[in-house]
Amino acid sequence: MKLIYERSQAGRRAGRLPHYELPKAEVPEQLRRAAPPRLPEVAEPELVRHFTALSDRNFGIDTGFYPLGSCTMKHNPRVNERVVALPGFRDLHPYQEDEGAQGALELMWNLQEILAEVAGLPAVSLQPAAGSQGELTGLMLMRAYFEDRGEGAQRDTIITADTAHGTNPASVTMAGFKLEKCETDARGNLDLADLRAKVNERTAGLMLTNPSTLGLFDEGIVEVARIFHDAGALLYYDGANLNAVCGISRPGDMGFDIVHYNLHKTFSQPHGGGGPGGGPVAVRDVVEPFLPSPTVVRDGDAFRLDYDRPKSIGRVRGFGGPFGVFVRSYAFIRSYGPGLKEMSEAAVLNANYLLAQLKDTYELPYDRHCMHEFVLSARNLKRDYGITALDVAKRLMDFDIHPPTVYFPLVVPEALMIEPTETEPKERLDEFVEAMRRIASEAAETPELVKEAPHHRPVRRLDEVRAAKHPIVRFGFEEVTTPA
Ligand SMILES: Cc1ncc(COP(=O)(O)O)c(C=O)c1O
């Protein structure tokens, strides 16, 4: 496919503006362009064709099954887009005074209330713009909490699981804590003996996702919470996997003190490709005074932003947070109404259906019922036929299926982390099972077919290291002569 620059023909235009005799703008000499920018010159139909063709070559939840573990790529209901485009929301200016933004503030306040109920914790800040920013905010809250108690210097360590998502250790380091990892036991839970040996008076807290990245609910969570609280430490819940437990179990009831939500996963936002996201945090009352400022509060029938928060860690995001994401999440939650737990029940059912269908073909490292996702291993295919998890993932693309997450969590060799979500019908799940089984047969019978996949995508195998380390994101004007 040609690049837009390669379609360029000198003098072509997508549109023409009328010419007016206006005085020239007074742009200081040093800021003036010496030459016009080198933009592609194409007519509008060609422009439309180019971008339509490009969008066709992409893969998204709207084009097919997308079981990318941990990412919760569920259908984004179109009603959300209608609601977020209502002029009162769409045209709202972030500097609008509270009196003129009552509807928006009420929506934010309602969302805070619902999220508090889902977490089982009393106070919420909507500000963080992603799960990872929620993590950093949560750790800053821990620091503020311990500093306020005069334990700031003492409590310098955070414990994470060895299955933790990469953002957990990154956030711990960014927040200035030391990192310690707890091992996973044979059933996929935190190893309690290892934990007991590591928790002490230097421990600030635990950072854990439950269900874990193995898709397993930690059976020892009540004891885990006791160990940390007995040591005076706090528990942080990475809510990236909340899709498994909404309305069924609440992190606050499990003993967690600080929680983040990934609004873009659990409550549906079109988030593939880097945005937009929302990572609100909920906290127990002892942590509430430190929440980012401002929060949205209710005075009788009126709503306002509250800046009078002397112990707050301050702002973590411009204005009130990613407002469009709040509107979509709110619309999504209200469409379910009190039946929100049906979402999680269906997500868990779909995952267990796939697990049951595939566990005899691929290795299952932890043979338990899963939550909303599960991890298989392609270790058997590698051992017997030299076919890796990466090969399986690439071959799936030939079946118009987005690959699952691979090689994560790190504790499972040749990991395939599969999350179907609740929005997939049985026929799609069966197609996936069929494709996975067929790839396993091909691994035995025609391994080259799998090794060289994908065969039917616009792009074949890439040198992924080179693509990551030396991405070409700029058109090579010097190497190409523009057609006359
Ligand atoms: C378990 C887990 N924790 C944290 C995150 C980080 O969330 P975000 O991508 O919104 O920063 C993710 C994202 O995939 C995740 O899967």
Q: How does this model look, in words?
A:
It is a single chain. The protein has helices at 44-57, 78-84, 87-90, 102-119, 131-148, 167-174, 192-198, 221-230, 251-254, 263-266, 323-336, 340-358, 379-385, 389-397, 426-445, 447-451, 464-469; strands at residues 123-125, 157-161, 178-182, 203-208, 234-239, 258-261, 281-283, 295-299, 302-306, 374-377, 405-406, 415-418. It has 17 helices and 12 strands. The two termini are 20 Å apart. The chain is 36% helix and 11% strand. The chain is globular and about 75 Å long. The model has no long low-confidence stretch (mean pLDDT 95). The protein has a 7-stranded mixed beta sheet, with helices on both faces. Strands 10-12-11 form a 3-stranded antiparallel beta sheet, with helices on one face. With 484 residues, it is an alpha/beta fold. α2 crosses α11 (323-336) and α5 packs parallel to α6. The structure holds pyridoxal-5'-phosphate.
